[in-house]
């Protein structure tokens, strides 16, 4: 079994590499409405979910594992500001689109109607992400006033990741 910290850190690092989030080991972030700052859930030692800054964030938390299947269920809570939920919807949808384009059926190689090659993403430490399946798409909810303008909106999506 791969540790929770290893899985979450590898996913955060990968999402930063493809410019969907910003990831700083020291969690010293500046607000960037286009690039959410990675925070880790309360059970992770580095940063609390309840951090008030920055306004735009992506909180990663392990919610389940299955050692026999090598799957890890990870919730990604996106937070963004605005007068509507559209900014947070766009951030969460960008992650979905990336995983779908990179690992989904349209990225597979087909011969005679059968998939003959299914891509994988190499993560930090050499482990491979073979599948990212969206288990549940959250509903954007208004949570609190933002530090700068508008309101904060959050959406939590849960992903099942197949990692070897």
List keywords for this structure.
164 residues; alpha+beta; two-stranded antiparallel sheet; 2 helices; 38% strand; globular
Description of the structure:
This protein is of the alpha+beta class and 164 residues long. Helix content is 20%, strand content 38%. Strands 1, 2, 3, 6, 7, 8 and 9 form a 7-stranded mixed sheet that branches. A two-stranded antiparallel ribbon has the order 4-5. β4 and β5 form a beta hairpin.
Could you say which overall geometry the principal axes of the C-alpha atoms support? globular
Chain oligomer state: single chain
Strand count, sense and barrel status of the largest sheet are: 7 strands, mixed
The mean pLDDT is 89
Instruction: Provide the structure class.
Output: alpha+beta
Please indicate the percent range of residues in DSSP E strands (runs of 2 or more): 35-45%
- Distance between termini? 9 Å
- Write down the Rg: 16 Å
How large is the count of helical segments?
2
The total count of strands amounts to 9
Could you estimate the helical fraction of the residues in percent?
A: 10-25%
SSE pattern, N- to C-terminal: HEEEHEEEEEE
- pLDDT < 50 stretches: 44-49
Give a nutshell description of this structure:
With 164 residues, the protein is α+β, with helices and mostly antiparallel strands.
Write the SSE topology.
Layout: H1 4-17, E1 37-40, E2 57-66, E3 71-82, H2 86-103, E4 109-111, E5 114-117, E6 121-122, E7 128-136, E8 141-145, E9 151-163
Parallel strand pairs: 1-2
Antiparallel strand pairs: 2-3, 3-9, 4-5, 6-7, 7-9, 8-9
